[in-house]
Amino acid sequence: MRSHTIHWPAALPACAVGFALLLAGCKPLPPSKPASEWTEQEARGAAVYQTKCARCHYPTNTHSLHGPGLQALTKLKSMPSGAPPSDERLTDRILHGYGMMPPTSLSDDQLRDLLAYLHTL
Ligand code: HEC
C-alpha cells in the first residue's frame, strides 16, 4: 500500500464548512446532567419521558426522530418553534399538543417530574 500525504488544499473544503458553521453560531450544546446525578424527581421524570416522549424525541441530541431532539431544551433561548422554553410553554405543548405533536395526558405529579427531567437535558 502506498501511503498518501494530505495536501492542504484538499483539507480546505472541510475548513470552509467548519468556518461556516462557526459563523452560523453552531456551538456545541451544554452537556446534560448525568443519570448518576439525577434527583429522585428527575429519575421519575425520565421514566415518564421513556413512556410518553422517547418514541418521538431523542433526549441526547437535537436530531429529528418524529419531532426534534430535545438535548439542552431548557438551556437554549428558544425551542425549534422560536418560543421560549419556559415551563408554562412546555406544559402547554405537552398537554395540548403542537402542530404534528399529539397531546399527552399526564397527572400533575407526572407533569412536574417530567419538567424536572427536561431541565436536566
Ligand atoms: C407522536 C410523536 C410525539 C410524541 C409522543 C411527543 N412529541 Fe413532541 N413533537 C413531535 C413533533 C412532530 C414535534 C414538532 C411539531 C411541529 O413543529 O409541528 C414536536 C415538538 C416538540 C417540542 C418543540 C416545541 C416547539 O415549540 O418547538 C417539544 C419541547 C416537545 N415536542 C416535547 C415533547 C415531550 C416532552 C413529549 C412527551 C410528553 C413529547 N414531545 C411527545 C412529536 C411528538
Features:
mainly alpha; globular; binds heme C; about 120 residues; Cytochrome Bc1 Complex, Chain D, domain 2
Describe this structure in words.
- About 40% of the residues lie in helices and about 0% in strands.
- The protein has about 120 residues and is mainly α.
- The chain has a domain at about 35-120: Cytochrome c-like domain (Cytochrome Bc1 Complex, Chain D, domain 2).
- It is globular.
- The termini are far apart.
- The model has no long low-confidence stretch (mean pLDDT about 85).
Query: For the terminal residues, how far apart are their CA atoms?
Result: 46 Å
**Low-confidence residue ranges:** none
Q: How many strands?
A: 0
Report the total helices. Answer: 4
Percent of residues in beta strands: under 5%
Quick summary:
Helix content is 41%, strand content 0%. With 121 residues, it is mainly α. The longest helix has 16 residues, at 8-23.
In terms of topology, how is this protein built?
Elements: H1 8-23, H2 40-52, H3 87-96, H4 108-118
Helix pairs in contact: 2-4
Heme C (HEC) binds at residues 52-53, 55-57, 66-68, 70, 73, 79-81, 83, 90, 93-94, 98-102, 104.
